[in-house]
Amino acid sequence: MNASTTTDMLIEDNIDAKLSSQDVEEKDDEFTHEDRLWRDDGWTAKVIKNEDDDGWAVAMYQDGQSEPALVGPWTMGRDKKNPKPLDAAAFSTLVKTASEVLRRHEQHMHAMLHKSIDVMTDDGLVKVKLDIVADEDEPYATLSAQDRYGDELASVRVQPNFKLTATSAGNWIDSGFKSPR
């Protein structure tokens, strides 16, 4: 058995392996620049055998995380058997892409957890906000209202599944800001 075959077998045996947080923490200050493993600038790129076909994939891990932020296809080398080696340019592109994926995920989560609607009343514009606290044990939400100057008119705790719509906001204002049911 040659070294290449042994390496391929090791990679195939470790397809499902994740970086443990201990492994990541131990490597925080290290720089690794290998053909299939590249650690630098708070990120780790790991080339793995693609489970879906005969090709290769690359998984990008942010330091301190055991789950990859990004997994994508990786180019075959010239021999059409082994993966193309990682290099600085490819790693930089992967870091940029993985960072963008995380940023979009954070924006999506923020949009899901923080909503607002402007309602025109006889007294002027009222901004009604719903802020969800996604606690694992006891999630809840806060429904609040502010006048056009940003002064708080009311704030109540509601169920995290409360649906903020123009109608529900208007009904809450019309009720004198009584806790919605």
UniProtKB/TrEMBL annotation:
It comes from the Bacteria. This is Uncharacterized protein.
